[in-house]
Amino acid sequence: MLSARTAGTAGIAVTVFDDGKVARFLLHPACLVIAGPSSVCWVPAMKIRCGYNLSYQCPQAVPMQFLLSVHPSRERDLVTDQVMRTDPYLPSRVVLDHFGNRLTRLVAPAGELAVSADFIVEDSGSPDEVNRDAQEVPVDHLPDEVLIYLMGSRYADTDLLGDTAWSLFGGTPRGWTRVQAIVDYVHDRLRFDYQMARSTRTASEGHFEHVGVCRDFAHLAVSLCRCMNIPARYCTGYLGDIGVPPVDAPMDWSAWFEAYLGGRWYTFDARHNIPRIGRVVMARGRDATDVAISTAFGSAILGRFDVITDEVKEATTFRHSYSGHFTSGEIDPQSSMPVLSRS
Hints:
disordered C terminus; 4-stranded antiparallel sheet
């Protein structure tokens, strides 16, 4: 029987030992179980059940759009299809919006519309990545497509927070330390309270009122980062009580943000302020305007609102094939690595 050791994240090299023989692979971040000389099985570190049950009451037919699919970057992790079901059945079409999110468009008829999905996503089980050495990228070196995340937007009213941001964080070390200082400040500044949710609250209003829900934490942190010339974008998705004590409250989608440091995006969460496990992003944008779960171009009154985010405890093994094969001799450690792919 073969054995294997894994470490790190996606794309890592794994050494497989078989009576002294050595092979190397690139693989998905998961715990490998090797079960033969020419096949590889692996057990994902975690599976998460995600889904929703929503209903709307429409006085008359109304065009609607939904951002209910997982982000395209996570589609490869789907174990089951994320089919959006409607009752009554309605034709729909799925497109990518300007931010790369998967958008579903349909026309809801007069009466009640139910929308639902229930699916499984694989996850590495690793907490949000922390890289304290990540540095800020000078504005003149930022990629063109990132510049939009320096600008003010509907809920990120940077023009009202610029002086505050520079007075608070102008003296902090640049890079990761500065973003974390912003996260710490927002986490301490705002008090989380579902009962105080307000869909029109801007970042500056949340800062003044000292209260909000997860979107308000994200909006304020995004705004303060942009004021400091650090690109930041708003994110929404699934984040269940995985690896943390359960919260006695109805499940909901969550909001967090990403900051652009060292030439890539990193996840930060001003509400929880700790690296979390099992985050499944659905959409990204400038602020909540760009990632609204549903948008109705007319009257559509939300009725039922149930969100599912649970860790699946049952272990399931997925068999994978690979694009090369084991030879009878020892593989040259300098040779190219075959890549595992799902069969």
